[in-house]
Amino acid sequence: MFAITTERVPILVWGESADEATLAQTRNLANLPFAFRHIALMPDAHVGYGMPIGGVLATLGQVIPHAVGLDIGCGVRAWRTNIPVADLKQHREAVLHQIQRDVPQGFDWHKASQTHRTDLFDSVPDVPVLHDEIEKAERQVGSLGGGNHFIELQADSDGVAWVMVHTGSRNVGKQMAEHYDRLARDVNRDQGSPVPLEWGLAHLGTDTPAGREYLAVMGWCLSFARESRRLIAEAAQQALSRLFPSATPDPQTDIHHNYAAVETHFGTEVVVHRKGAVHAVGTVLVPGSMGTASYVAEGLGNPDSFESCSHGAGRAMGRKAALRALPRDRVLRELEELDVALAKTHKGDVAEEAPEAYKDIEDVMRWQRDLVEPRVRLIPFGVVKG
């Protein structure tokens, strides 16, 4: 870790370096008048909307929708299935295709409301803009989405299969993020905020009606994302249990990596924004890119990172750049050589999630060895993607 001390508050950077565009966004964070103590930049950091993905920001009394992210509550769920990898590999195509049938991917939704599977919708905050999205959300919960979201079959060093699910709050989270960013921009403009609008860091006071409303809506989106991962995990485990009824899975671990939370750090109550970062206390999950290792680790609660760690490998190449630079057939061939079975309906955009489009997960884990201690290294052998 090294420090940049040229801004209003220092920037602590884990990793060898960050690109100039990411650092420019980070400098904006460091010059916010309500930024607390320092900014922490994780080793997987890259450019996002307003705030870098892989950034950690603590604020005094302010919440920033774009410092939470568009996919509110995006996160990862994983569990040890206690099925031998050698046995599961004999049936992996059948399992992957069953998951594909049971879990909508990409822009697909469930054909009907999923309220019979969850009580999530019994506690929706009484906010009109959120209620406008609920009918659609009832069909989207328990669906995977696209982009870097996945359901992966993985092998640990003992030859036992794990499953990992990566997804978030789908369209409802995106709509809420954009709505409250627009609202914050209007508030900042009317009140003459010193934060330039072009920074994309419009903010709301946590003691204002608008700020409290955003936090309530964000909290429900976190519940939506976690419940979505639970329902996907339920479908994946059912696909496995049909073939391996005697295997009893271990308890599941679920973590968010796009959210804000009121916490106490360095003796002060602050709002910690983790955008593409994980609260590194207890068990954490750090997924790699498609075809590379993922980790189950123990968070070390490092105070300098506001008890945070990276959320994954982090992009090294934009999606469009990856599609231009990485031939689809080569990516598919490399996955085949790695013995990773890919279940993806539309493979034309597979290159945007290729390992070469991401940072090396092994480097990321080395750079953050003072933030997490690896416990289990997981190698993929099957993946469902939207």
Secondary structure elements and pairings:
Layout: E1 2-4, E2 11-13, H1 20-30, E3 35-46, E4 53-59, E5 62-63, H2 65-68, E6 75-84, H3 85-89, H4 92-102, H5 128-140, E7 150-155, E8 160-167, H6 170-191, E9 204-205, H7 209-243, E10 253-256, E11 258-265, E12 268-275, E13 277-279, E14 281-286, E15 294-300, E16 308-310, H8 319-325, H9 328-337, E17 341-344, H10 361-367, E18 372-385
Parallel strand pairs: 2-3, 17-18
Antiparallel strand pairs: 1-2, 3-4, 4-12, 5-9, 6-8, 6-10, 7-8, 7-18, 11-12, 13-16, 14-15, 15-18
Helix pairs in contact: 4-7, 5-6, 6-7
Provide an overview of this structure.
It is a single chain. Helix content is 32%, strand content 28%. The protein has one domain: tRNA-splicing ligase RtcB (Alpha-Beta Complex), CATH 3.90.1860.10. The protein has helices at residues 20-30, 65-68, 85-89, 92-102, 128-140, 170-191, 209-243, 319-325, 328-337, 361-367, and strands spanning 2-4, 11-13, 35-46, 53-59, 62-63, 75-84, 150-155, 160-167, 204-205, 253-256, 258-265, 268-275, 277-279, 281-286, 294-300, 308-310, 341-344, 372-385.
